[in-house]
């Protein structure tokens, strides 16, 4: 039972640096993760080597063994000459300390392991996994043969008789080492192949997104441009058209161009989310400005527009981005209500240092499934929508530490509640004196 515990402990000393290397290096999603990190390999192998030497496993009474040769092997074949030599020197320096055993024999053994490792290291990365397993077995067999020859040589010099039990101990020890080395190599290669696969998946996903985005832009913009081309040709080829007809055609052309510009703006909104310049914003003034702007749009749609906004609402963020958020949501509400008896209400206030902006309409409403899909790219409830407006909105709110929640019932309307953290300005002593502003 003690032997099993010793084997598990030695295996832990060998494998733990491998998992640490994966955690701090290979798990990163960039190409640098596949490069050799010599400092990390060196430190890990040196610590592993010393721990294996300090706590050897006892095969039988008086006969101990350790897996120090495994971190030595790993440091050379995966790290290079410098990590390998430093790991070797660490073991040598430890054994040179005056202990009560034959350190000269141990140094000769380590030197032999070093030479065997160098013979394998040159083309290690070009070998297949199967070939690496074969070479690890060769490494174990070489150590076994060297150990048996050394055992014979030492016994002859000391005029000691050799027992079969001595050979059995050596054979069992080297078999354990070979098995553990093979397991370590498998873990290293598996983690590396997983890192390569993960990077390829990330790259493929990016290419897929780019191709999908390009196809979507081409598809969405082609429709209004086709309409524009048709009306321009109609204007140019129709000699008997009246001025009113030409103006009607031009209005349609401008409408389609505006639509194309809106589509491009939505796509650029997704690409530009990383460029956010935050500052203190008076949200009350921003909302009043937006409601004045959207009131004219509501009147054009014959929709009644009401707002109730408290004063001194401050947030920390990008004014232009947040303005885009509220314009998108209010515009969606106005377009969702009927042209007769359509109502959109906006209410803004603060509670527990959280600003709430509530936008309520009596429009067509949405199902639970539709609400759950809001914010997905390319998902839209509008006939000519790109499905990117709310995607941009969700992204902007998230970057400001805010959120938006929808509740709706079919044919009864929709409620959108936006939450944003209140910005506390210590220099403004009147910031909590709230007053309502109605429009």
- Parts with pLDDT < 50 across at least 5 consecutive residues: 429-435
Helix coverage percent of residues? 55-70%
Number of helices: 12
Regarding CATH, which class of the largest domain? Mainly Alpha
Shape: elongated
- First-residue to last-residue Cα separation: 82 Å
Largest sheet: 6 strands, mixed
The Rg value, from CA coordinates, equals 37 Å
The structure class reads: alpha+beta
Q: Let me know the number of strands.
A: 10
The overall pLDDT, averaged over residues, is 77
Order of the strands making up the biggest sheet: 8-9-7-6-4-10
The structural domain count equals 3
- Fraction in beta strands: 5-15%
Q: Give me the CATH fold name of the largest domain.
A: Arp2/3 complex 21 kDa subunit ARPC3
Order of helices and strands: HHEEHHHHHHEHEEHEEHHEEE
CATH architecture verdict of the largest domain: Orthogonal Bundle
Topology readout:
Layout: H1 2-26, H2 38-54, E1 57-60, E2 63-65, H3 69-79, H4 81-96, H5 103-121, H6 129-157, H7 164-237, H8 243-271, E3 279-282, H9 283-300, E4 303-310, E5 314-317, H10 319-336, E6 342-351, E7 354-361, H11 368-373, H12 389-399, E8 403-409, E9 413-421, E10 436-438
Parallel strand pairs: 4-6
Antiparallel strand pairs: 1-2, 3-5, 4-10, 6-7, 7-9, 8-9
């Amino acid at each position: 039972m003690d032997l099993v515990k010793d084997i598990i402990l030695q295996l832990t000393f060998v494998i733990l640096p491998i998992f640490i290397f994966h955690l701090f290096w290979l798990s990163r999603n960039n190409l640098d993760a596949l490069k050799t990190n010599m400092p990390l390999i060196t430190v890990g192998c040196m610590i592993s080597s010393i721990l294996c030497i300090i706590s050897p496993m006892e095969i039988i009474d008086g006969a101990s063994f350790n897996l120090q040769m495994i971190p030595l092997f790993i440091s050379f074949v995966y790290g290079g000459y410098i990590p390998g030599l430093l790991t070797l020197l660490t073991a040598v320096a430890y054994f040179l300390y005056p202990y009560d055993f034959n350190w000269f024999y141990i140094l000769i053994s380590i030197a032999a392991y070093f030479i065997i490792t160098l013979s394998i290291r040159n083309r290690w990365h070009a070998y297949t996994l199967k070939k690496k397993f074969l070479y690890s077995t060769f490494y174990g067999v070489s150590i076994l043969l060297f150990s048996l020859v050394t055992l014979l040589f030492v016994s002859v010099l000391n005029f000691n008789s050799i027992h079969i039990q001595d050979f059995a101990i050596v054979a069992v020890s080297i078999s354990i080492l070979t098995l553990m080395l093979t397991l370590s190599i498998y873990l290293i290669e598996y983690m590396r192949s997983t890192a390569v696969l993960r990077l390829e998946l990330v790259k493929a996903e990016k290419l897929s997104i780019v191709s999908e985005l390009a196809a979507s832009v081409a598809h969405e913009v082609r429709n209004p441009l086709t309409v524009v081309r048709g009306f321009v040709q109609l204007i140019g080829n129709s000699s008997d058209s009246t001025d009113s007809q030409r103006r009607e055609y031009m209005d349609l052309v401008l409408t389609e161009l505006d639509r194309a510009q809106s589509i491009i703006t939505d796509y650029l909104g997704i690409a530009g989310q990383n460029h956010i310049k935050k500052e203190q914003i008076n949200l009350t003034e921003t909302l009043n400005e937006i409601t004045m702007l959207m009131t004219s749009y509501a009147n054009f749609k014959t929709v009644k527009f009401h707002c109730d906004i408290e004063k001194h609402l401050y947030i920390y963020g990008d004014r232009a981005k947040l303005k885009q958020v509220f314009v998108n949501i209010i515009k969606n509400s106005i377009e969702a209500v009927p042209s007769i008896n359509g109502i959109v209400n906006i209410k803004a206030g603060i509670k527990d240092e959280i600003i709430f902006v509530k936008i309520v309409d009596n429009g067509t409403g949405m199902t639970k499934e539709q609400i759950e899909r809001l914010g997905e790219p390319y998902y839209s409830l509008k006939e000519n929508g790109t499905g990117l407006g709310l995607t941009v909105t969700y992204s902007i709110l998230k970057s400001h530490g805010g959120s938006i929640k929808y509740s709706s019932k079919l044919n009864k309307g929709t409620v959108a509640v936006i939450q944003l953290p209140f910005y506390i300005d210590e220099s403004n002593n009147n910031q909590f004196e709230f007053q309502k502003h109605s429009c």
